[in-house]
């Protein structure tokens, strides 16, 4: 972490928050969602005996409520996935500034000094991109799982 500079710490914090949201969404899908769906089905049993127009609106409200709770953290995961490469780029800028400082003081003759700044630039770029890719993958996976579950819930509430 010392070689990555302050941008690597920012990448670490944002990726930690992103992974907390990812794990929370999987927990929700496997533990909380089935209970919430069962409660909505019980509520629907009372509503479906009403006139067709009223029942249709109430069904839509129930499905919207389920959708809102299922999509709760997906926006945060997507935002973190978009911010992480930018933080990697910020680390690249910091590393290049360090490299140019070494060149300004010592010239091109200090290879060890140049390597430190270049190393910081490459390390933060890689960290930002790798963590962003993992966030994009799991965001897409969660989105597809949620859409499938919501479609099944819509079919069950007919």
From TrEMBL:
Tell me where the transmembrane regions lie: 6-27, 83-106, 118-138
Keyword Transmembrane attributed: yes
Spell out the GO cellular component terms annotated for this protein, sorted alphabetically and separated by semicolons: plasma membrane
What's the short name of a Pfam family annotated to this entry? MotA_ExbB
Report the subcellular localization. Answer: Cell membrane; Membrane
Any idea which UniProt keywords this protein has?
Cell membrane, Membrane, Protein transport, Transmembrane, Transmembrane helix, Transport
Residue ranges of every copy of the MotA/TolQ/ExbB proton channel domain listed in the record: 51-150
**Predominant cellular place of this UniProt entry's protein:** membrane
Bilayer topology: Multi-pass membrane protein
Gene Ontology biological-process entries: protein import
Q: Which InterPro entries match?
A: ExbB/TolQ_transport, MotA_ExbB_proton_chnl
Q: Which family does it belong to?
A: Belongs to the exbB/tolQ family.
Stated name of the protein = MotA/TolQ/ExbB proton channel family protein
From which source organism is this entry? Methylotuvimicrobium buryatense (Methylomicrobium buryatense)
